[in-house]
Amino acid sequence: MRIIKEDDYSLDVLKEVSNIGAGNAVTALSKMISGKISMDVPDIKVLDFNEVAEVLGGEEQIIVGIYIGFEEDLQGNMMFALDLDSAQNLSKLLYPRERDSDEFDDMDVSVLSEVGNILASSYVNSLSTLTNLKIAITIPSLAVDMAGAILSVPAIQFGMISDKALMIETMFSQDEDSVSGKFFLLPDLESYDKLLNALGVI
Question: Structural domains in the chain?
Answer without folding.
Answer: 9-198 (3.40.1550.10)
